[in-house]
Structure formats: C-alpha cells, structure tokens
Design goal:
single chain, Alpha-Beta Plaits, Aminopeptidase, 7-stranded mixed β-sheet, 4-stranded mixed β-sheet, 7 helices, 11 strands, about 35% helix
Length: about 220
C-alpha cells in the first residue's frame, strides 16, 4: 500500500514488495511488514534487505549502487597471507550462530549510536538459521570467540549481514575464509549491501543496482530449473 502523502510504500500482511525502482535515492523501498522467514527469504531473493533501529517500523532497502564481492577477486595483502598461514586463529562454521549474532549486535561501531540487530531481528535470523538458510563463520583464539560473521545463503549467492572482531584481523580472517569457500563451491558473489572502505580493501566493489539484480535473478532462475 502506498501512502498518499509520500513515495514510501507501507507493507501489509500480503507477502509482497513493491517494484525495486520505487526505492528512493537512499535506497529505502518500503516500510512495515513482518520479519517472517517467508518475507525475509523473498526479500533477499529480490535484492532487498531489512535495516532499522529498535524504535522504528521495519525498513526495507535496495540501494543503488550495490556493494558486492566476486569471490575470485578477494584481495589478500602480503601481511594478511602471512598472518593466515600461522596458527593463531582457528575457524568453525555454524558452530555457534547465536553467539555470533549476539556479538555482532553488541560490538561498538564508529559513527553508530546503536545497533540495527534488534531483538526481533535476532529472533528472525535464528529461525532462518534453524531452517539452514542463515549461516555463520566463527573465529577462535585459545578457545575464545574473537570474531565472525553471519549471512543468508541463497545457494549460489551469499548475502552478508554483519561481522565482528574483538581482536585485530579476526573478522577479516572470517571474510577471507568465506570468500575462499564460496569460490571453491562456485558461488557467484557475496552481497555486501553498502560501501565501506574495509570491504573495498578486501576486493569488494560497487555495481549498478540493475546489474546486481540481473545477476541475482539469473541465480534465482537457475536454482528453480
């Protein structure tokens, strides 16, 4: 439903989103709706993701341009290669999704007063994890969880949601390992959503939303065949 006094669409109980081209200049597409597994999965398959604070209605985004990483383009510096060849960190996958989720919510981030990983968001992504859709990577140092990331696995595309690091290089270690795994499994790209210098330093790049959606829909169509 479209608000007559604005260009923002307000979602109802119907499981649908407006056309992506209706997003405003900041990428905001729609407001409201629920965080059911069905709606979240439809969103990610459509190039849309939720991002909002605790005191807000659900906000749904599809920015232009879109930040992505093609796994084969992962950039590993010489110093990071030396670091990764050591034995300081160990990596696990999907061992403690809830703990990674909590850590991502609690970590302090420059320029942000709070977290978008609200209690409702946590509950929603835990449901997706139990369904085998939301997955995590965990980085350990001396049996302590020091870094990690989580996201939505669409089969040929991984939609990164958040990562955290309690010690230097821990989240970078997890991200590189994720990219290397996905390259071996012939995933097409990681959806990084929004530009950051950190992601750019690791090889991620911005592409037009139209190109992003074409790549995404090609993967979704391929999985249906």
């Amino acid at each position: 439903m479209k608000n007559k006094n604005s260009d923002i669409y307000f979602l109802t109980e119907r499981l649908e989103f407006p056309p992506i081209d209706n997003a405003n200049s900041e990428g905001l597409l729609a407001v409201g709706g629920d965080l059911s597994p069905e709606r979240l999965l439809l969103a990610y398959k459509s190039g849309i993701f939720p991002w909002f604070n605790d005191d807000s209605l659900a906000l749904w985004w599809s920015p232009d341009p879109r930040m992505v990483l093609f796994p084969k383009k992962i950039r590993i510096s010489k110093s990071m290669r030396q670091f990764m060849s050591g034995t300081r960190f160990t990596l696990t996958r999907n061992k403690c999704f809830k703990e990674v989720l909590e850590a991502c919510a609690e970590i302090e981030r420059a320029g942000q007063a709070g977290t978008w990983i609200t209690d409702n968001m946590k509950e929603a992504y835990l449901k997706l994890h139990y369904l085998g859709i939301a997955k995590s990577y965990e980085v350990w140092e001396e049996k302590k969880l020091v870094g990690g990331l989580y996201g939505i696995d669409l089969g040929d595309v991984f939609c990164g949601e958040s990562m955290f690091s309690k010690v230097s290089n821990a989240s970078k270690f997890a991200f590189i390992k994720l990219a290397q795994d996905l390259e071996r499994q012939n995933y097409k790209f990681i959806d990084c959503q929004l530009y950051t210098r950190h992601l750019e330093s690791l090889g991620a790049e911005e592409i037009p939303r139209k190109e992003f959606l074409e790549l995404l829909q090609a993967e979704v169509k391929g999985r249906k065949q």
